[in-house]
Amino acid sequence: MDELKTAVNLLAAGTNAELLSKKYADHALSSSSEWKGYRELHVDGPRGDWLLIYKIKQQDLILTLVRTGSHHNLLGK
Q1: Confidence band for 57, pLDDT divided at 50, 70 and 90
Q2: 42 classed as catalytic
Q3: Which of 27, 42, 71, 72 is catalytic?
Q4: Three-class SS of residue 54?
């Protein structure tokens, strides 16, 4: 759970886009999927299978943590 806490703290800080991309493979989910407007990061590193799906509204500093689990459990892949 420490990995999740670290990732969430980085998200909440709102200034770590490059680190999130590099360390957690953070990226937007496909705009053609049901997850349009959401992002995903790999809690256990770029090649890991523990995902966090989230949405952030920068101008209001609102972070919505939506789901966590494996690729298969969350996205069916």
Answers
A1: confident
A2: no
A3: 71
A4: strand
